[in-house]
Specification:
Helices cover 16% and strands 49% of the residues. By secondary structure, it is an alpha+beta fold.
């Protein structure tokens, strides 16, 4: 038989472990998020990436494209980035918490969804 005191200690330890798992991930707001995008032969890669970010955290998007396109950041306020053939770099921050998406409007598809927390 296991003594009550031992069971109590095990129960408290288990709750602490579960509480630790439930915490939001720690996001370093000073470290930029980097997204590399390739648009070639009518396809865009990657698609469907997911990121966690803090408000004001820089996001850098490096794009290499063989065609014209337009990337839209569906945030508050929305942002648009014109893409022409070649290599481009765009940087932005999101200052309003929420889930925002970065999408290609001509080739099509959601490149990334960013969960922005205060």
């Amino acid at each position: 038989m296991i003594p009550r005191r031992t069971l109590s200690v095990l129960a408290v330890a288990g709750m602490l472990v579960l509480a630790g798992c439930a915490e939001d991930p720690v996001v370093d707001a000073s470290t930029p998020i980097s997204i590399t995008v390739t648009i070639a032969d009518g396809t865009i890669t990657p698609l469907g990436l997911e990121y966690d970010a803090s408000t004001g955290q820089p996001v850098v998007v490096d794009v290499t494209s063989d065609t014209d396109d337009e990337l839209h950041l569906h945030a508050e306020p929305e942002k648009t980035f014109a893409v022409t053939p070649g290599t481009h770099q765009f940087q932005f921050t999101v200052d309003v918490p929420g889930s925002v998406s970065l999408e290609s409007h001509h080739v099509g598809g959601t490149i990334a969804t960013i969960d922005v927390r205060p």
